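Inverse folding, one chain.
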């Protein structure tokens, strides 16, 4: 059944979702930041309806998809909250943790939208490289909500023969898996940047993912979620694909480029950089052991030698200590 859907965010992922939802028969509007962005999209004859006006974008929407970078979710929601229909399902498509608060994206949306508008909230996450989905290649994703009815409605909107969706009620696990795998991808990129080979990279991913699972369980997630599509499936795609922004950042940092220079050269956000900051703060606050993720943070922000950070995966522990 056709649904009026609003995608908030003129990002690569936002445009990709707007296009495939439109092809699925839905009335899709994309809320851009500026009039110039909307005009540019219109000139490209996109399949959806771009606008910079919140009221026009959100009027009568049955589903609102938040496809902005994680660190701007709160500001974007605050800027349009009065226009968000109370009956609409809210879908968080951002993978990250808010640095200042450590909150997951559905928690941020709940803060801003309030109890009435955030009743139908869920998270969409999985191995979803936007470029491949935009080219019509098959993919799958998880829809997580504490409300089974909301999850089924969103599954109906998003699901197709090219985009398989499954549902779960483990919102914490799905969001943490999607956020923390970006830190693992940074580390996998570092391994590739150092030219250490696939064996060492595989060992790193295995050890790091075990740490992510322990961290997630300590935060209230179900362990099984990290072995499924939103966990293991997503970390594989992000750690091995040339389309992965986080992997690219790790690779360039390992080759000697300053982090800020790498980030400045990119047109899209590498969410793992911000998530590493948030995880460090959470680990300290909650006294959670996360040595691998902490070492990646230290490489990025404290000048910690990368050779020491990867020593346990290269057989150099004695010499690097």
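Residues assigned per position:
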């Amino acid at each position: 059944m056709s649904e009026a859907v609003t995608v908030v965010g003129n990002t690569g992922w936002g445009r990709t979702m707007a296009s495939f939802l439109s092809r699925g028969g839905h009335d899709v509007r994309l809320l851009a930041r500026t009039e110039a962005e909307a005009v540019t999209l219109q000139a490209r004859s996109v399949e959806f309806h771009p606008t910079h006006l919140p009221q026009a974008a959100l009027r009568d929407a049955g589903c609102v998809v938040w496809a902005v970078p994680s660190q701007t979710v709160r500001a974007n929601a605050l800027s349009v909250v009065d226009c968000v229909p109370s009956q609409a399902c809210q879908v968080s498509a951002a993978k990250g943790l808010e640095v200042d608060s450590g909150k997951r994206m559905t928690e941020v949306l709940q803060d801003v939208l309030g109890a009435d508008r955030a009743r139908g909230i869920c998270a969409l996450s999985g191995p979803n490289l936007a470029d491949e989905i935009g080219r019509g290649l098959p993919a799958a994703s998880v829809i997580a909500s504490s409300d089974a009815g909301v999850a089924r409605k969103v599954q109906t909107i998003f699901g197709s023969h090219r985009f398989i969706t499954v549902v779960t009620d483990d919102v914490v696990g799905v969001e943490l898996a999607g956020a923390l795998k970006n830190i693992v991808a940074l580390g996998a990129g570092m391994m590739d940047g150092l030219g250490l080979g696939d064996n060492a990279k595989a060992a790193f991913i295995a050890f790091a993912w075990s740490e992510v699972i322990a961290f997630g369980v300590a935060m209230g997630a179900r362990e099984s979620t990290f072995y499924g599509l939103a966990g293991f499936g997503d970390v594989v795609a992000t750690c091995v694909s040339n389309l992965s922004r986080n992997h690219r950042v790790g690779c360039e940092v390992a080759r000697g480029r300053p982090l800020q220079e790498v980030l400045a050269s990119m047109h899209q956000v590498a969410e793992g950089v911000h998530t590493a900051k948030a995880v460090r703060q959470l680990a300290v606050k909650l006294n959670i052991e996360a040595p691998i993720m902490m070492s990646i943070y230290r490489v990025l922000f404290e000048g910690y030698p990368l050779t020491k950070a990867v020593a346990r995966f290269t057989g150099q522990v004695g010499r690097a200590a």
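The chain has two domains: 4-169, 172-320. The domain at 4-169 is CATH 3.40.50.720 (Rossmann fold).
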